[in-house]
Each structure stands twice: as C-alpha cells, then as structure tokens.
Amino acid sequence: KMGAFLAVTKGSVEPPAFIVLRYAGGPAKQAPVVLVGKGITFDTGGISLKPGEGMDEMKYDMCGAASVLGTLRAVAEMGLKQNVIAVVPTCENMPSGIATKPGDVVTSMSGQTIEILNTDAEGRLILCD
C-alpha cells in the first residue's frame, strides 16, 4: 500500500503511474544500480497552493524522472555491462474537494505514518514509498 504516493495523487483527475524499468546488461547475480526520479507532471502545490506567478513552469517538476529515463536509455544504447533499475513515480499535485489536506495522516508503504503539514512537500512523499 503506497499511502504517501497515493495521498499526493488524490486531487487530480489524471491517473498516477509507477514506472519500473530494468536493464539487464550485467551478470544475473550482479547487484543493480537503482535510479529514482521524481515525476510530478504538474505541481500546483495542492491545497497549499503555489502563487500564480511562475505556475506555468511547474510542468518542470518532472525533470528528475526525465533524467532517470534518459540515463537508462543512454545505458541501453551504450550496451553497458551493468544491471540498472529505474523507478519513477509520476502524478499531478492538484487541489480539489478530495485532495489531501494539511493535517492529514497517511501510512507509507513501510508502515510509517506521516502527518502532511504542507501539501507542496509532494516530492518526498512520492519518493518515500
């Protein structure tokens, strides 16, 4: 159960995605390099709404995800002798009547409970699960 990740997604009508890609270039027993990238496709701040100025640039909150996916593609194109796993949680952080609110408590995948004090702290929530 990915309660932290899903808490961020609640305000959006767009479905979230949890992308896992594997490149097997090394021996089967070789430990992989794991790359994790934040994929907030649009970040309004949720209920803790960001100021309107600069809101158009919040589409760039997915650059961590783009970097991870681009790196995995480069690894594959170069044929590196290394196992690599890419983990990319993607979603929007939007306000709505069903969005997560400051003060809500969610349970992460590890079972740890988290009180959300500011819904604009979405990056750490989607990455912790």
Automatic annotation (TrEMBL):
One of its GO terms (molecular function) is metalloaminopeptidase activity. The keyword Hydrolase applies. The keyword Protease applies. One of its GO terms (cellular component) is cytoplasm. Keywords: Aminopeptidase, Hydrolase, Protease. SUPFAM superfamilies: Zn-dependent exopeptidases. InterPro entries: Leucine_aapep/pepB (IPR011356), Peptidase_M17_C (IPR000819). Residues 118-125 form the Cytosol aminopeptidase domain. One of its GO terms (biological process) is proteolysis. Pfam families: Peptidase_M17. Transmembrane segments: none annotated. It comes from the Bacteria. Belongs to the peptidase M17 family. Presumably involved in the processing and regular turnover of intracellular proteins. Catalyzes the removal of unsubstituted N-terminal amino acids from various peptides. This is Probable cytosol aminopeptidase. The lineage of its organism: Bacteria, Bacillati, Actinomycetota, Actinomycetes, Kitasatosporales.
